């Protein structure tokens, strides 16, 4: 029975059941003793604790607990997803700076970038044709959002990371006055809200590992990002 005891104890630890490890060990030992008398007790216990169940079973159990009755139907829903089929590539994302609550300090979130368009880790900065929405596509968009003070609590799928103070991106520009190196590619940085506009807000989609830039009074112009 040592193997069963170890498995139960690990499951209790993994799902953070009970407030102390001593209590978890007591529950695991008591469960093993009951198993010797009634082998079906393990399945019943795990269902009551929500341990060892697949997502479908856990969803069914939550619905039953919420309504106080058995599940009547399983509903399949098709939701259409609308998106821009054509986007303008502005460059490769290098850094986003998240403004803190004191409105004076920021936390930088840095990304791997390269001027190679086939780099799998590089995140593209793109815009819709109207120049009113900046999006991030492709590459490695995973971020350590838990180290950003004030971000949403763990367990949510959409994480409110914080207001974006500035964006840095690598791109090439051939029509601006200044160093000729701009045509070969360089890093540009734009500080949002320079004219007093609203800052965009960074949201992280944990399920899809995707960054979303929400709101903001900016537009994309031939000279660069404005606002």
Report on the structure:
The strands form two sheets. Strands 1, 2, 3, 4, 5, 6, 7 and 8 form an eight-stranded antiparallel β-sheet that branches. The protein has a two-stranded antiparallel sheet with strand order 9-10. It has 227 residues and is an alpha+beta fold. The chain is elongated. The mean pLDDT is 84. It has two domains: 2-67, no CATH class; 88-226, no CATH class. It starts with a helix and ends with a strand. It contains four helices and ten strands, in the order ααααββββββββββ.
Index terms:
227 residues, alpha+beta, 2 domains, 8-stranded antiparallel sheet, two-stranded antiparallel ribbon, 4 helices, 10 strands, 23% helix
Count every beta strand, where a strand is a DSSP E run of 2 or more residues: 10
The succession of helices and strands, N to C, reads HHHHEEEEEEEEEE
Averaging pLDDT over every residue, what do you get? 84
Low-confidence stretches: none
What's this model, at a glance?
This protein has 227 residues and is an alpha+beta fold.
What order do the helices and strands come in, and which of them pair?
Blueprint: H1 2-14, H2 21-37, H3 41-49, H4 55-67, E1 88-99, E2 106-110, E3 124-127, E4 134-137, E5 158-171, E6 186-191, E7 201-205, E8 210-214, E9 219-221, E10 224-226
Helix pairs in contact: 1-2
């Amino acid at each position: 029975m040592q193997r069963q005891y170890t498995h139960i104890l690990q499951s209790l630890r993994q799902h953070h059941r009970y407030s102390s490890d001593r209590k978890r060990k007591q529950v695991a030992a008591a469960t093993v003793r009951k198993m010797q008398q009634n082998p079906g007790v393990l399945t019943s216990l795990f269902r009551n604790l929500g341990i060892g169940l697949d997502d479908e079973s856990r969803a069914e159990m939550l619905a039953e607990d919420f309504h106080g009755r058995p599940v009547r139907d399983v509903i399949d829903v098709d939701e259409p997803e609308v998106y821009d089929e054509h986007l303008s590539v502005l460059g490769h994302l290098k850094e986003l700076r998240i403004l803190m609550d004191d409105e004076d300090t920021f936390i930088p979130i840095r990304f791997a970038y390269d001027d190679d368009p086939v780099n799998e880790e590089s995140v593209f900065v793109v815009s819709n044709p109207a120049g009113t929405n900046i999006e991030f596509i492709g590459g490695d968009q995973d971020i350590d959002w838990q180290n950003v003070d004030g971000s949403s609590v763990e367990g949510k799928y959409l994480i409110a990371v914080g207001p974006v103070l500035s964006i840095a991106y690598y791109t090439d520009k051939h029509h601006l006055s200044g160093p000729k190196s701009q045509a070969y590619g360089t890093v540009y940085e734009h500080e949002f809200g320079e004219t007093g506009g609203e800052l965009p807000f960074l949201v992280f989609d944990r399920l899809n590992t995707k960054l979303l830039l929400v709101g903001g009074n900016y537009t994309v112009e031939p000279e660069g990002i404005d606002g």
